[in-house]
Amino acid sequence: MSETLTQHESPVTPIASLATDVVTAEAAEGCIEGKRIGERIRQLRQRKGMGLVELGRHTGLSASFLSQLETGRVVPTLRNLARIAMVFSRSLIYFFEPERPEMFRIVRAADRQRLPQTGAEEPAYFFESLGQVPADQAVTPYVAEFLPANERRPQRPHQHVGMEFLVMLSGQLQLAHDGMIDVLEEGDAVYFDAEAVHSYQKIGEDTCTALILSMSEPMRGSSRAEVRVPAVKAAIRKP
């Protein structure tokens, strides 16, 4: 007489179920390690010029954990990967898709994350990353919104490696660059060496926004001496 199972019985023993879970976990870890996710995270962070401590502030993860993650000493959870992906305006799929140049990419407005000015108690501007441009050179586009200056929100002169290209989308902005001051209006554009000390200040009450392309390296074929030039303002107003 053949035996039949009732709806309350299972042909899988607890030990067999546990073994299946272990195999599944090992397969998942192997998949994550094979995708070199740590290297991808480090590349995203370095392209944005962000340190481990700053990335930790945006994700709620410790700098030491992020360091171990980038070097492959720990395996991230999907929850942690999702936090990191949001900072760089990426989807979770980015870490698992094949490594190949992407010549077409859409960044939805609803997926952009609004981040404050780095290192300021009361930020003078907020920016949203538009993702990494698929190109040989590291180019990162942002949309920035500038706020009125006050006692708690003074101009913060700064400098960093590379170049910047800024296009005014709305309002007026005062740009101080290498000891010179220019006022930019809607439709104006400026390209300058970001290693020179520079700062921004909103003018007036109207909303002040700009599209910024941050390039971590000078143009190919140009030496640093060749690109250290004063800011050049170019009018590209709408017809």
Describe this protein with a few key phrases.
2 domains; Jelly Rolls; 239 residues; 434 Repressor (Amino-terminal Domain); disordered N terminus; 7-stranded antiparallel sheet; 6 helices; 3-stranded antiparallel sheet; alpha+beta
By CATH, the architecture of the largest domain is named: Sandwich
Fold-level CATH name of the largest domain = Jelly Rolls
Question: What is the mean pLDDT?
Answer: 74
Biggest sheet statistics: 7 strands, antiparallel
Order of helices and strands: HHHHHEEEEEEEEEHE
The fraction of residues in strands falls at: 25-35%
Please, how many domains? 2
- Straight-line distance between termini: 89 Å
Please state the CA-atom Rg, rounded to the nearest Å: 24 Å
Please provide the count of β strands: 10
**What would you give as the CATH superfamily of the largest domain?**
Jelly Rolls
What's the level 1 CATH class of the largest domain?
Answer: Mainly Beta
Helix/strand/pairing class, anyone?
Answer: alpha+beta
Description of the molecule:
By secondary structure, the chain is an alpha+beta fold. It folds into 2 domains: 14-95, lambda repressor-like DNA-binding domains (434 Repressor (Amino-terminal Domain)), CATH 1.10.260; 112-235, Sandwich (Jelly Rolls). 26% of the residues lie in helices and 25% in strands. The chain has 6 helices and 10 strands. The protein has helices spanning 14-34, 37-47, 52-59, 63-70, 78-87, 224-227, and strands at residues 114-116, 125-129, 139-146, 163-170, 172-177, 180-185, 188-193, 198-203, 208-215, 232-235. The strands form 2 sheets. Strands 1-2-3-9-4-7-10 form a 7-stranded antiparallel sheet, with no helix packed on it. Strands 6-5-8 form a 3-stranded antiparallel sheet, with no helix packed on it. Helix 3 packs across helix 4 (63-70). The longest helix is centred in the N-terminal third of the chain and has 21 residues, at 14-34. It is elongated, with a radius of gyration of 24 Å. It starts with 13 loop residues before the first helix and ends with a strand.
